[in-house]
């Protein structure tokens, strides 16, 4: 029976989701049947990340049972891939000795991520039970501000000295490789642990065994500080194609490294926040939206909706204040949705490209003034192009009332220009104030242009009708 099980677990050509679904179904069936030897055979050829996803898909009553059947070393690796909610469930269901051993063997950065999700009382208890060395490292990382390089880094790295020979360095790498996060980037420090250089494993392997490390290392080492924002750390790794970046304290002493796998998590987290902000949804912890209860979902969405509702009341106030011209020419009301909808769309386009430009830092080559001017001109051009369609159509709909059509045309150009300018300027303003530019996203730009657009349209119509009507 075991042979078909293993074959099914490694489906040639299957994508990750399909493999996880098959694995979860088979794992559940074997656990419910009590076939624990079959579970071990099933999981033996499977990657840790796929095992973690499969365990996460099991009922809670079976998660701890499946986890206990893993070999010790594999269990620690699998645990670090599990979702925070599943990690907490396992901590509740495992024995105290198992929990302590698991937490003790985790890498420091993953342990800190876990502690961030746990209640303070549980964290204090686990910290007290750690070995002195692991307690000291964990407390050190927890002491740094959230979402900084210090909080994100791991202290498991290999450091060498300039006086080491290449042969000695290779011996050190072999001895410490199993206990470090990565061996592909090696760091050189002096007697005071100041970072003096960096060396790739490739350069070390191809170097003459008799050469000194100081002769083959790169002295111009790029590093980040412990208080560097995690988003900036991601940019540094992306810019220089690093597998890891060293982290130094204020005295330029090497205290840790941030690896590319942690940066990928940061990029995903920041992208999730930006997308939530773009939709006027309050960001939660990571990407837990679909695991949240409905009351939490409503709470996270209603805050911004209420803000937008209050802002949109300005549109109603403008229309109410201009009721005289609307009573005089009722057909004017027919074009309000068209104008404010177009303004909102143009503003959303401008804010999207500017926010993305800020995220990638490509907008810096233009500068704020040129970026805003460029979008304003683009908005005016878009308005002029749409006027060629809107004015004839408005004249037809209004029964040949070209004053109404002209008001719609003039207003459209003004609205698109204003919307593009606001869409570019507001995110840049928020960025300058140190706020998240993504907050000035489509819903907020649309709301602002709605109020201004209606005012411009009705004022233009009132002036044209009063002058030529």
Q: What does this protein look like?
A:
The N terminus is likely disordered. 67% of the residues lie in helices and 6% in strands. The chain is mainly α. The protein has 23 helices and 6 strands.
In short:
The protein has 469 residues and is mostly helical. The protein has 23 helices and 6 strands.
Question: How many strands, what sense, and barrel or not for the largest sheet?
Answer: 3 strands, mixed
Q: What is the H/E string?
A: HHHHHHHHHHHHEHEEHHEHEEHHHHHHH
Task: Kindly provide the radius of gyration, computed on alpha-carbon positions and rounded to a whole number of angstroms.
Answer: 30 Å
Mean pLDDT: 84
Which outline best applies?
A: elongated
Residues in β-strands, percent: 5-15%
* Unreliably modeled segments: 1-14
Structural class: mainly alpha
Q: Please give the number of β-strands.
A: 6
N/C terminus separation: 90 Å
Share of residues in helices: 55-70%
Question: Strands across the major sheet, in which order?
Answer: 1-2-3
Count of DSSP H/I helices: 23
Helix-strand layout with pairing:
Blueprint: H1 2-9, H2 16-33, H3 36-43, H4 48-56, H5 60-68, H6 72-81, H7 84-93, H8 96-105, H9 108-117, H10 120-129, H11 132-142, H12 149-152, E1 159-160, H13 166-176, E2 185-189, E3 195-200, H14 201-206, H15 213-216, E4 224-225, H16 230-240, E5 244-248, E6 254-259, H17 260-278, H18 294-321, H19 323-328, H20 336-360, H21 368-397, H22 402-432, H23 442-468
Parallel strand pairs: 1-2, 4-5
Antiparallel strand pairs: 2-3, 5-6
Helix pairs in contact: 1-3, 2-3, 2-4, 4-6, 5-7, 9-11, 16-17, 18-23, 20-22, 20-23, 21-22, 22-23
């Amino acid at each position: 029976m075991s042979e078909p099980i293993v074959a099914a677990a490694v489906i040639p050509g299957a994508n990750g989701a399909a493999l996880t679904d098959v694995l979860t179904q088979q794992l559940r069936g074997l656990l419910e049947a009590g076939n624990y030897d079959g579970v071990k055979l099933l999981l033996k050829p499977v990657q840790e990340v796929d095992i973690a996803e499969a365990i996460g898909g099991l009922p809670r009553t079976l998660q701890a049972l499946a986890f206990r059947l893993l070999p010790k070393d594999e269990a620690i690796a699998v645990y670090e891939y599990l979702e925070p909610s599943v990690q907490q469930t396992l901590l509740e269901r495992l024995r105290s000795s198992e929990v302590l051993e698991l937490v003790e063997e985790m890498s420091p950065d993953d342990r800190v991520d876990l502690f961030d999700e746990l209640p303070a009382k549980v964290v204090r208890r686990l910290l007290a039970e750690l070995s002195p060395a692991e307690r000291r490292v964990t407390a050190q990382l927890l002491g740094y501000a959230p979402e900084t390089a210090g909080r994100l880094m791991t202290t498991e790295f290999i450091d060498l000295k300039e006086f080491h020979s290449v042969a000695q360095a290779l011996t050190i790498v072999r001895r410490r490789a199993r206990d470090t996060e990565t061996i592909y980037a090696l760091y050189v420090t002096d007697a005071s642990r100041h970072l003096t250089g960096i060396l790739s494993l490739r350069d070390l392997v191809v170097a003459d065994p008799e050469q000194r490390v100081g002769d083959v290392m790169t002295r111009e080492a790029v590093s980040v500080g412990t208080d560097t924002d995690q988003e900036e750390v991601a940019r540094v790794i992306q810019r220089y194609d690093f597998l890891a970046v060293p982290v130094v304290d204020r005295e330029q002493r090497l205290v840790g490294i941030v690896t590319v796998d942690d940066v990928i998590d940061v990029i995903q987290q920041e992208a999730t926040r930006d997308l939530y902000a773009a939709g006027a949804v309050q960001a939660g912890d990571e990407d837990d939206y679909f695991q949240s209860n409905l009351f939490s979902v409503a709470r996270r969405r209603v805050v911004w909706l209420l803000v937008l509702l209050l802002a949109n009341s300005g549109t109603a106030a403008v229309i109410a204040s201009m009721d005289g011209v609307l009573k005089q020419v009722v057909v004017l009301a027919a074009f309000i949705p068209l104008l404010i909808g177009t303004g909102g769309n143009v503003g959303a386009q401008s804010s999207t490209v500017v926010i993305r430009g800020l995220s990638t830092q490509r907008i810096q080559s233009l500068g704020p003034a040129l970026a805003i001017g460029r979008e304003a001109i683009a908005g005016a051009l878009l308005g002029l192009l749409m006027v060629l369609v809107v004015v004839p159509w408005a004249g037809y709909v209004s029964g040949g009332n070209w004053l109404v059509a002209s008001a719609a045309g003039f207003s459209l150009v003004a609205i698109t220009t204003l919307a593009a300018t606001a869409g570019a300027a507001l995110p840049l303003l928020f960025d300058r104030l140190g706020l998240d530019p993504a907050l000035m996203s489509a819903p907020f730009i649309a709301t602002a242009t709605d109020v201004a657009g209606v005012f411009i349209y009705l004022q233009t119509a009132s002036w044209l009708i009063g002058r030529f009507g």
